[in-house]
Design goal:
The structure holds two protein chains of two kinds. Chain A has eight helices and eleven strands. By secondary structure, chain A is an alpha/beta fold. Chain A folds into two domains: 138 residues, P-loop containing nucleotide triphosphate hydrolases (Rossmann fold, 3-Layer(aba) Sandwich); 66 residues, no CATH class. The longest helix of chain A is centred in the last third of the chain and has 18 residues. Chain B folds into two domains: 45 residues; 229 residues, MetI-like (MetI-like fold, Orthogonal Bundle), CATH 1.10.3720.10. In chain B, helix 4 runs parallel beside helix 8. Classes of the chains: A alpha/beta, B mainly alpha. At the A-B interface, helix 2 of A face helix 9 and helix 10 of B.
Chain lengths: 256, 293
C-alpha cells in the first residue's frame, strides 16, 4: 500500500495532496499540464523533495519531513517509466533492460537469464542488440516497461507512458500496458491526459487541479464526472481525439 | 566543394531576342543576383587561396628526401619526442583534473562560480607571452610560490615540468569548456532514470553521464593535445629553450630557422600533419555527439 501526503510550494501554487494506492491497484492521476502530477511522481520516486509530508510504501517510510527521513531514489525500490522513456542512448536494448540488475550488484550471481526472460516476455529479445535510436516508439515503450519491471519493484510509477506514441499504436499498446501492469501486482500510479487510459487501465482516478486533488473515485464511475471541464470542456484535448462527438468518456469503455 | 550556380537568365537565346529586348529596358545586362554570386565566389576563392597557399608552399618547399634526412637530425627527434611526451602528460592531467571541475560547473551552483568560470576561460584570450610571465612570477625562482619551493630545493622554472605547466595553463580551457558544454547537454532525465533503477551517484556518473558526454570530452581532449603541441609563447618565457629538456617543436622551428631551414620545414610539416589529424578527429567525434543528441 502506498500512502502519500505531501505539501510543497511550486512556482505558481502550492501542491497539497493526499493519495493512497493499495496493493495491485492502478491509480490514475489526471489533470491539466502543470497542475503538479509529475511533481507528485517525482516526490514519490525521490527525485524531488517536498517541503513537508510523509510517503510510506508497505509500512516502509520513504520520506518523512518531521523525522528527517528521505530515502535516496536508489533505495526506494520502485520502477519509473518516464514520459520520454529516458532510455539510455549509448546502450543497446539488452543493456538498458539489464541496467537495474547490474546496479543492484546481482549481475555476477547469474542474472543473465533474468534479463533474457524479461526480454523474451516483452517480445524484445530479437532486437536486444539494437541501439535505442534504431527502434520504434512501441518498442521503446516495451523496453522502458521491461527495464522498470525487471528488478521486481515494490511500486510502479508511469508518467504518460503512451503519450509518445501515435493514436493507432496507443490503442494497441494500451491493452498490453494494462495487462503487464496488472500482472506485476504492486501499487501503481500513472499520470495521463487520456480518459481512454483512465477507463481502460485504471482502477481509481484522482483529478488534480493546481496542486489539489479535486475529485477522487472509481475509474469506472468516470462518466459521472462529465461535468468537469477536463472531461467535457473545450480544453479536453486528447480525450476527444478518437471518440465520435456526443459519446461520453464512460461510454467509450465499451468500444475499447 | 560544390560549384556555385550562376543565374544565366541574362544570356539571350536564339529566337528569343525580341521578347528579351523588351525586358532589357527594365533590367541591367547582368542581373543583380548573378553579380552578387560572382562577387561571393571571388571572395570565397580568395579566402581559400589565402589559407591553402602557405600550407601548400610548405609541402612544395620540402622534398621527400630532405624531409626524411631532417627527420634523423637530433634536434628534430628531441623536439618531437619532448613535444609528444609533454603534450600527452598535459592532456592526461587536464582530463583528470578538468573533468570533475567541468562536471561541477555544469551541474551545480556555488558562490563565486562566475569568477571561477572567468578564470578558467582567461588563458584562451590571454596572450601566451603574458601567460609565460605570469607563470614565471608564480613559480619562478623568485616567484610567489616558487621562492618557497626553491627554499625546499625544488626548482620548477626552465625544466621539463615548466613546459608541462605552461601547456596545462594555456590548453586546459579548451577541454574544460567543451567538457562543461557536453555535461550540460546530457539530459538529466537519464540520470534520474538511472537513480530509480538503483544506481548510486557515482555509478550513474561513470555508466550514464560520462558515456553520453564522452564524444564531447574526447574532442575537447584532442583540442587540448593540439594546443599543447603548438604552444610557444608561454613555454619560451617560463621554460626556456634548451634542446632535449624544454625545446618543444614550435621552439625548435623558431631556433632552426636561424641555421637550417630544412629542419625547420620538416618540423613544420609534422605539425601541419598533426593539425589535419586533429581537425579530422574532432569532426568525427562532434558528428557522433550530434547523432547521440
Amino acid at each position: 500500500m502506498l500512502e502519500v501526503k505531501i505539501r510543497t510550494r511550486l512556482r505558481e501554487f502550492e501542491l497539497d495532496v493526499s493519495l493512497q494506492a493499495s496493493q495491485g491497484e492502478i491509480l490514475m492521476l489526471v489533470g491539466e499540464n502543470g497542475c503538479g502530477k509529475t511533481t507528485i511522481l517525482n516526490a514519490v520516486a525521490g527525485l524531488f523533495t517536498p517541503d513537508w509530508g510523509k510517503i510510506v510504501l508497505d509500512g516502509r517510510v520513504l520520506f518523512d519531513s518531521e523525522e528527517g527521513i528521505n530515502l535516496r531514489p536508489e533505495e526506494r525500490r520502485l520502477g519509473y517509466v518516464f514520459q520520454s522513456y529516458a532510455l539510455f542512448p549509448h546502450m543497446s536494448v539488452y543493456d538498458n533492460v539489464a541496467f537495474g540488475l547490474k546496479t543492484r550488484g546481482s549481475w555476477k550471481q547469474g542474472m543473465t537469464h533474468v534479463a533474457k526472460e524479461q526480454l523474451e516476455a516483452f517480445g524484445i529479445w530479437e532486437i536486444r542488440k539494437e541501439k535505442i535510436s534504431r527502434i520504434s516508439g512501441g518498442q521503446k515503450q516495451r523496453v522502458a516497461l521491461a527495464r522498470a519491471l525487471v528488478t521486481e519493484p515494490e511500486l510502479l510509477l508511469l508518467d504518460e507512458p503512451l503519450a509518445a506514441l501515435d493514436l493507432r499504436r496507443q490503442a494497441s499498446m494500451r491493452n498490453e500496458l494494462r495487462e503487464r501492469v496488472r500482472a506485476c501486482g504492486v501499487p501503481s500510479v500513472m499520470v495521463t491526459h487520456s480518459p481512454l487510459d483512465v477507463s481502460c487501465i485504471g482502477d481509481r482516478i484522482c483529478l488534480v487541479d493546481r496542486g489539489r486533488v479535486v475529485l477522487q473515485g472509481s475509474a469506472r464511475k468516470m462518466d459521472q464526472w462529465g461535468a468537469h471541464p477536463i472531461f467535457g470542456g473545450p480544453d479536453s484535448g486528447p480525450m476527444d481525439e478518437s471518440t465520435p462527438p456526443g459519446v461520453s468518456p464512460g461510454n467509450r469503455r465499451s468500444s475499447i | 566543394m560544390a560549384p556555385l550556380q550562376f543565374n544565366v537568365d541574362f544570356i539571350r537565346k536564339p529566337g528569343q531576342g525580341h521578347s528579351l529586348k523588351r525586358r532589357d529596358h527594365h533590367r541591367p545586362a547582368i542581373s543583380r543576383k548573378a553579380l552578387l554570386k560572382l562577387c561571393l565566389s571571388a571572395v570565397l576563392l580568395l579566402v581559400t587561396l589565402f589559407l591553402v597557399l602557405p600550407v601548400a608552399s610548405l609541402l612544395l618547399k620540402v622534398s621527400p628526401g630532405v624531409f626524411l634526412q631532417s627527420l634523423r637530425d637530433p634536434v628534430v627527434m628531441d623536439a618531437l619526442s619532448l613535444s609528444l611526451a609533454t603534450s600527452a602528460v598535459t592532456t592526461i592531467t587536464v582530463i583528470l583534473f578538468g573533468t570533475p571541475v567541468a562536471y561541477v560547473n555544469a551541474r551545480f551552483h556555488y558562490p563565486g562560480k562566475e569568477i571561477i568560470d572567468s578564470f578558467i576561460d582567461l588563458p584562451v584570450i590571454m596572450p601566451p607571452a603574458v601567460a609565460g610571465i605570469a607563470l614565471l612570477m608564480a613559480f619562478g625562482r623568485m616567484g610567489v610560490l616558487g621562492q618557497h619551493l626553491n627554499a625546499l630545493g625544488f626548482n620548477v622554472a626552465f625544466t621539463t615540468l615548466a613546459v608541462i605547466i605552461a601547456q596545462i595553463f594555456v590548453s586546459a580551457p579548451f577541454f574544460m569548456r567543451q567538457a562543461r558544454t557536453s555535461f550540460e547537454d546530457v539530459d538529466r532525465i537519464y540520470e534520474c532514470a538511472a537513480r530509480t533503477l538503483g544506481a548510486t551517484d557515482t555509478y550513474t556518473f561513470f555508466h550514464v553521464t560520462l558515456p553520453i558526454a564522452q564524444n564531447g570530452l574526447i574532442s575537447g581532449a584532442i583540442m587540448t593535445f593540439a594546443r599543447s603541441l603548438g604552444e610557444f609563447g608561454a613555454t619560451i618565457m617560463f621554460a626556456g629553450n634548451f634542446q632535449g629538456r624544454t625545446q618543444t617543436m614550435p621552439l625548435a622551428i623558431y631556433t632552426a630557422m636561424q641555421w637550417d631551414l630544412d629542419v625547420s620545414l620538416c618540423l613544420a610539416l609534422i605539425l601541419v600533419a598533426f593539425s589535419f589529424l586533429v581537425i579530422a578527429l574532432v569532426r568525427i567525434f562532434m558528428s557522433r555527439m550530434k547523432e547521440h543528441a
